[in-house]
Amino acid sequence: MAKYNDHLGRPIVAVTGIGVVTSLGVGKADNWSALTSGRSGIHKITRFPIEHLNTTIAGTVDFLPSSDKGASALTYELAEKSGREAIAESGLDAENFGGPLFLASPPVELDWHDRFALYRDGKDGSATDRLFTVARNLPTLDVFETSQFGSIAARLADEFGTRGLPITLSTACASGATAIQLGVEAIRRGECDRALSIGADGSATAEALIRFSLLSALSTQNDVPEKASKPFSKDRDGFVLAEGSAALVLESLESAVARGATVLGILQGCGEKSDDFHRTRSKPDGSPAIGAVRAALADAGLGEDGIDYVNAHGTSTPENDKMEHLSLSTVFGERMRTTPISSNKSMIGHTLSAAGAIEAAFSLLTMREGVIPPTINYDNPDPAIELDVVPNKKREAQVSTVLSNSFGFGGQNTCLVMAREPV
Questions:
Q1: By C-alpha distance, which of 283, 337, 280 is closest to 310?
Q2: Model confidence over 209-243: pLDDT tens digits?
Q3: 329 and 415 both lie in a single domain
Q4: Per-residue pLDDT tens digits for 53-95
């Protein structure tokens, strides 16, 4: 029926369930309360030794049982918790979901405690020979199965009863948004009535910290951890590594209405554009990010005046925040001086593979609750970035449309447009 189709004749995609876990807590309620209060979840690292490290802070999720069991185990628990909350809210069967699963997760490696266990269990020959001897004798190869890229999605598919081959994807810091985009496109193509999109990342390990430090990407303002992430501020010096997860139940509007589900928002448009300029830096003219924003607006059927609020990628790195301002001011012109834009990363840090999904969840809550979360730590404005960043305190506002940006390393740019009601 026409009322269930968008401006291009495709099925309108609704959101009927949301789940969130971050360093601020488990579940939407705790996260939203902390986020709108301007509370930070960033703290000193206690999970592994930090001596001689330039960065000693992170937004780790240390309150879950698997937080000390390695990146793969923690990523699975994060995804499972957010997925279960989202499905429960949707009113669908948590053991027989019946639609496809799209999971954004980090390319996890064999955790160090597993490596050491393998090394200790070998007896003869070189270290390599001992490792292979142990590996060949493992009855089920559990250690290696849990470090395979698709293992987390496979377990989730069994847990929730999703349909078809579960898709695991990694598009760097845009991964969570890409998982949502794939779910939207599957519904639009008529392949399914519903999809489960999850972004999860529990990979705040010592190795990850060192790697990002070598790229000069992390903040080194360790003395007051909750003040380190300061998007769009003049004294920003890098992002803060973090963990978390978010899940969305996506459903055709016609299906949601037919079964009497509560519609939490609409996934109105998606846009993406690659950037081949540099492994970590953005193209100086910002054209790929500009292209992604414009593609999302066009897909949503909206013009430059159609966005009420921007949920920024806002990592707090000197390069990203400057590029994001360039791209938004190019697309929206003078209007960006007064359109509110804020960065959740000022409070929860950068959750990498999960970031796009978490920020989409918070964007939907912004529209439903009529409250814009702040950008905290905005005490030293950058005169080169003229934006209304909703500084330091939440703002009550009626928001009907949101643009959520995800600009990842390696030139992965994905933007989502969400609406309270079909536009």
A1: 337
A2: 999 999 899 999 999 999 999 999 999 999 999 99
A3: yes
A4: 999 999 999 999 999 888 988 999 999 999 999 999 999 999 9
Position 100, amino acid: P
Nearest Cα neighbor of 104 from 361, 276, 325, 315 is: 361
Same-domain pairing of 269 and 134:
no
Dihedral of the alpha carbons of 53, 58, 64, 69, in degrees to the nearest 10: -30
Identify the domain containing residue 137 by its residue range. Answer: 112-145
Q: What is the DSSP string of 181-210?
A: HHHHHHHHTTS-SEEEEEEEE----HHHHH
Q: Are residues 250 and 122 in the same domain?
A: no
The reply to whether 98 and 235 lie within a common domain is: yes
Check: CB of residue 363 under 8 Å from CB of residue 26.
no
Q: Taking the CA atoms of the chain, what radius of gyration do you get in angstroms?
A: 21
Pair of tokens at residue 128: 């390599």
Same domain, residue pair 313 and 402: yes
pLDDT digits (tens, 9 = 90+) for 320-378: 999 999 999 999 999 999 999 999 999 999 999 999 999 999 999 999 999 999 999 99
What distances in angstroms separate CA 58 from CA 113, 175, 240, 244, 408, one per listed residue?
A: 21, 20, 6, 12, 19
| Higher per-residue pLDDT: 142 or 53 | 53
In CATH, what number is assigned to the domain containing residue 200?
3.40.47.10
DSSP 10: P
Tens-place pLDDT, residues 273-310: 987 766 667 777 888 899 999 999 999 999 999 999 99
Q: Are 347 and 34 in contact (CB under 8 A)?
A: yes
**Residue carrying the six token digits 């929206």:** 332
Please give the pLDDT value at position 129: 76
The 3-state DSSP composition of the chain as helix, strand, coil percent (nearest 5) reads: 40, 20, 40
Top-confidence range, 47-51, 137-141, 283-287: 47-51
**CA dihedral (65, 88, 353, 173) positive or negative:** negative
Q: What angle do CA 128, 130, 131 make, to 5 degrees?
A: 65
Within a 10 A sphere around the Cβ of 119, how many other Cβ atoms? Answer: 12
Considering the domain architecture, whether residues 120 and 167 belong to the same structural domain is answered as: no
The Cα–Cα gap between 88 and 82 comes to 10
> Do 193 and 140 belong together in one domain?
no
Residue numbers annotated as active site: 173, 313, 350
Which amino acid appears at position 107 of this protein? P
Question: What is the percent of the chain where pLDDT is above 90?
Answer: 81
